[in-house]
User: What shape does this take?
Amino acid sequence: MIALVAALVVSACGGDDPQAEAGAPDEQADVASADAATVEAGTPEEAAAILIGCESTVADGVPAFYSSYFRCTDIALDGDHVVITGTNLPPHLSYYYGEDNAQFEAFDFSRSDEYRPNPNQIAEQMFVIRVPIDPVATGVTIDEDTVNLDTGDATDYPFGAAGVALDGVALFNPLAAPGDDIEDERFTFDSNEGHPQQQGAYHYHAVAIGPLAVLQSLGLSTSMTPGEAEIELYGVMCDGTVALGAAELDGSAVETELDLQAGHVHDLVDGAGTVLLEDRYHVHMAPSIGVEPRGLTPEAQYYSTCDVTAR
Ligand SMILES: [Zn+2]
Ligand SMILES: [Zn+2]
Assistant: This one.
């Protein structure tokens, strides 16, 4: 995806060049949502040009953590759960939409010669995730028995959709299907760091561009490069565990100790100093942080429930 890469290079340099182009006009032909060629890097408009078909509704009473950051889904309240409903169609370009789809882009083989697409194609889903507002810890011990990238541990998040990203895409646990290795499977990720499984369910296992595009579209950051955005929030797991990136939710540095899946517990505070989630377990998905930095979703489920419907 040449257009995105060009934009990222500009923003990565902290450039504020009004001449900066997100891509040549012919590369933007199938991006109908904005005239990206005239959009400045780092602006909400640049991110909005990447987000395609992102429609959101937020019901009254939804906790500010969800209403402030989550988009491209319908968010409602049901008793002591936040219910997030969507189609799980990624609101950005993907090779995996297939050539006949307006959101198709060619697979990017330029990343390394290990990259190759898988044979699956994106399919729409009925995707509902019910996240507890006050999750209850299971008391799981986070150690090499529970965080090891091996399948079959009783403490692992379930296979399939186990969380939702800010852009409405399913988050999967960091494990490849038995017999496969995520560190090899990640070479099938598209330019936005996602891929579909056999039934067409698109998902992220790792840091991704779409959630950062949502934050930039909201004016909360000026970069869609993982590790470089002022605020990096990727999504929430089904049990209430939050998936952050290299920094805390208010943009400050990660200062207290992290466990084996780069997680810890403290209040999550927004940029204005408001506590949005008290004493909340969260992981810092970032290739640069933690005991064994992987930039992957959490493996061991910290809180007690995981209620997801995806079919
Ligand atoms: Zn996968
Ligand atoms: Zn933290």
